[in-house]
Amino acid sequence: YVFSRIYNAEGFADRVVIAPALQDGPQTIEVNGVFEDGITLNDAYSGRSYTVKNGQVAIDDHKGIVLLETQ
């Protein structure tokens, strides 16, 4: 499963998308409604960067868990 957390308070804004139980192999993660197309996201666990395209991110290398955030 995949979920997002959006936090906006007192001048601070933060958005993340988390996929805590990915199966092996390449994955496509929906980020539509959280991140716009063209934005580069960082996976906090692997350190890899991905670009949002058509509301999705194609993940090709992960540790079974992904935490996507803006850089």
Distance between the termini: 23 Å
Question: Could you spell the SSE succession in H and E letters?
Answer: EEEEEEE
* Shape type: globular
- Total helical elements: 0
Arrangement of strands in the largest sheet: 1-2-7-4-5
**How many distinct beta strands?**
7
Main sheet: strands, sense, barrel: 5 strands, antiparallel
Strand content: over 45%
* Average pLDDT over all residues: 93
Counting helices, strands and paired strands, the structural category is mainly beta
Helix content: under 10%
Instruction: Output the radius of gyration.
Output: 12 Å
Short description:
The chain is mostly beta strands and 71 residues long.
What does it look like?
By secondary structure, the chain is mostly beta strands. The protein is 0% helix and 49% strand. Strand 1 (3-9) and strand 2 form a beta hairpin. The chain is globular, with a radius of gyration of 12 Å.
Write the layout of secondary structure elements.
Layout: E1 3-9, E2 12-19, E3 27-30, E4 40-43, E5 49-51, E6 56-59, E7 66-70
Antiparallel strand pairs: 1-2, 2-7, 3-6, 4-5, 4-7
